[in-house]
Each structure stands twice: as structure tokens, then as C-alpha cells.
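Slide 14.
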Amino acid sequence: MTVSEKVLLTQEGYNKLKDELEYLVTVKRAECSDKIRIARGFGDLSENAEYDEAKDEQAKVESRIVEIELQLKNVEIIDENIKKNNKTVCIGDTVKVVDLNNKREMELMIVGTIEANIAERKISNESPLGKALLNSKEGETVEVKTKVSKLQYKVEKIIR
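Slide 15: predicted structure.
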């Protein structure tokens, strides 16, 4: 992520990111410091696995804090008001689609890249399917080209 790259988030995604940052800064940092302090008490730091592990965890926490701060500095929260009168799929919408290749029905939420989580059925607006669904209307069929075939999805319903 570059310094000027916009981070698209739903309000929910923004809140989760803020909560994670608060947890890392107020709880996790202190936990890491305690682990380091305790590990120092075990003696020689050159052969102290607990100390090395605690320092590694601290580095990961600090790295994640910097990453989140950068993301929040460049955040653009998806404006729900813009979507109200729009009849096409927008970022932040949940879309009920039918995979025409296997007749399977799915509900997917289109979100910014950092919110994407397939286990929660949240797909990135930059993914092939996310790109294809954006700006489509109910009843339309969109096509996603893969290396071996073309997949087709019918937009059944846009849920806001």
C-alpha cells in the first residue's frame, strides 16, 4: 500500500479497524512489554528463546499498528446516501447472485480490499467477480473470465 492509496471501507469495516487499533495499542502493547520484561529475568538474552519470541511478537504488533494507522489515514468510508437512489451494484452492497454454471445461489457483499473475507462472504471490489458485479443491475448477467473458462452470474437482487 502506498501512502496516497485510498482505502475503501464500509462503516462497519472502519469501526472494526479502529477497534483493532485500540486493542493493539492499549492491550497488546502492554502484554508484549510484560512478556519481554519477564523473559529478561530468565538471564542471558543471547540464548533466551522466550525473549526472542516476545521481541518477535512485539515487532508484529508494532508493524500491524503502523499498517492500520496508514490505512486509517487514507480511508474513504463508502457513502450510503449515494447508493440510495442508485439502481446498480455499489461497494458496500450485498448481492444475491446465481452462478449459472452450476445453478448455485450465493449472497456476497462487495467491500474494499482490506475488508475482503471469503469466509464471511465479503469479496473485494478489485476481485474479478467484484469488478464484474459493480455497476450491474438486477436481472443482468455478468461474466468473469478465468484462465480456463468463462463464468456467468445472474444478479438476482441488490440488498442495501
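Speaker note: The chain has two domains: 7-77, 81-159.
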